[in-house]
Design brief:
With 155 residues, the protein is of the alpha/beta class. The chain has five helices and seven strands, in the order E-E-E-E-E-H-E-H-E-H-H-H. The protein has a five-stranded mixed sheet.
Length: 155
């Protein structure tokens, strides 16, 4: 079985795994995080546990959302996001998985969500996969990850 993985990076992001040919949703989970003092960070160990269930021969491609600084975002916030992003890149690299970066504009256009509100991703995913665990407002990262993976299947 060949799979594609979609990743919405960051502390509130998610990871989705789709079967390559059928686009069947195999798994969708929150980005694994652990406490770091009074803050949180992405867990490299958690990422490896998620990715460790797959071999590099099974993974057709990992699609990682390519995001940058937003206007008004503070230096500390951007640094912390960069750490999260780097943890994801490192885990993917350590597993030997192929990686493609995709901008939010590309995957949102592919999903028909350009200009849509943030919550539209959850609605779209529930239309495609009624059984998907994206029912809570805080599941936007999971929903985005599913649509990022689906984008990869459409290119």
């Amino acid at each position: 079985m060949k799979i594609v993985i979609g990743i919405d990076p960051g502390l509130t992001g998610g990871i989705a795994v789709l079967e390559s040919e059928s686009k069947e949703l195999i798994k969708v989970v929150d980005m694994p995080i652990i406490p770091e003092g009074s803050k949180k960070k992405v867990s490299g160990h958690g990422l490896m546990k998620i990715f460790g269930g797959y071999t590099r021969h099974q993974v057709e491609m990992v699609y990682l959302e390519k995001v940058g600084a937003r206007p008004g975002q503070g230096v500390v916030s951007m640094f912390n996001f960069g750490r999260s992003y780097g943890a994801v890149e490192a885990a993917v690299s350590l597993m030997g998985f192929p990686l493609t970066y995709v901008t939010p504009q590309r995957w949102k256009r592919s999903a028909g969500l350009m200009g849509a509100h943030k919550d539209a991703s959850r609605g779209k995913v529930l239309d495609l996969y009624p059984e998907a665990d994206v029912h809570r407002k805080k599941d936007n990262g999971r929903a985005d990850a599913v649509l990022i993976a689906r984008y990869g299947e459409s290119v």
